[in-house]
Amino acid sequence: MPHSAAAIAARILTAGLPTFARTIAKLEHLVVEAEAPAHVVAAVIATDPTLTALTLGQAHAAGHASTNLNEAVRRIGQGVVLATARSAIPVAAAQRGMLAACWGQANAVATLIPILVEHRRSQLKGGWDAETLHLVGLVHDLGHVLAFSSFTEEYVRAALRLKKGEDGFERVVGEEIGATPAQLAGLAARGWQLPPVLAAPMEHWRRPNLAPADQIELAAVVHVAHILAHAAGFDAGADRWVMPMDDWAISFLNLRTSDCESTLDRMFESMDELELFEGALGG
Q1: Is residue 131 part of a domain?
Q2: ∠59-64-67 over CA atoms, to 5°?
Q3: What span, in angstroms and rounded, lies between the C-alpha atoms of 25 and 85?
């Protein structure tokens, strides 16, 4: 039976987000033992969607609305960063492969978004910097992570329905939980006090035309980048089938097939670091 809106909101805001224990341990070493500078700590956080969202949310709540992780770490202090990392939930062994796939997909999308924006710069009005674009890609699908980590039984039932032939990942998961991954993302983004440039794409990338007017361009870019990454083999969990690219987004960005092909080519040229990252997660 689907949960009530109140029950869903309560669980999202209290259950915590998963991450890898080794990432927390690395931050413990850097902050406590090595006394590493802020930019080194920020570089570790920037590979982890959970810690990125929580750190930027802490900074925003403290009055420092920024998408610069180095600045966020410096502003709130490494003690707060470490406490934030410790509040994340070490992922259970049974979910480790799923989380690794989600992190791999997130990093692929984060690689694609700046490439896609550069490629279509003449079509876009937004003046986002490269780090902001990377972080948008990194956290864009945390609604999916929240679905399987906070509502595991419901997610498993949805996965079985999809495996039996039902289509529509967002719809099926939403029917089991009582909220879609997009709705979970919206609830979480507001609870974590993420800046709109991160929050809006998280909530609206699957249906970018519904994003607020000042974030609609970025939501369209994330939509296309996610589908291209998924089509290139970066799937995760029960979301196995590549969703159709939204006609509105294609028209809005004036995309051609050759644009998608060249963007993917450039993504694969940039994949060395990502492959090392995925290898470390799988080790």
Answers
A1: yes
A2: 75
A3: 9
